[in-house]
What does this fold into?
Amino acid sequence: MGRRAHWNPSDGSTPPFAEGGAAFVVIQHLAPTQQSLSRAPAGSPGQRLSPCEQEILGFVAEGKSNKEIAAALAMAENTVKSHLKSILAKLHVENRVQAATYALRHGHRNKPPNKTNG
It folds into this structure.
């Protein structure tokens, strides 16, 4: 068996799921459609996601870690893990990379926060 490559933060390279990272670029390439999960056809996996799960999936698609998602949503990291397990089951995928690919293919992204001048 071949060796698995691991990201080394000390070498100054971009993390694989960060914007510009290898996995992020591959996922972006695989995401040609813009259909929203909230408008998924009846019976499709994405239609069953709760608003909280959709938000977490958006963060996963952005390459955020469970710890980063927990901080952004003011919830415990274990709560994020629990939601993520539910997301994976509902989408019939095995890992967060497949979930991120699903989200990007279906145009699911979190809306950026409103910025006010002033």
Notes: The chain has one domain: 15-105. The domain at 15-105 is CATH 3.40.50.2300 (Rossmann fold). The helical segments are 22-29, 51-61, 66-73, 77-91, 96-105. Residues 13 and 116 are 34 Å apart (CA to CA).
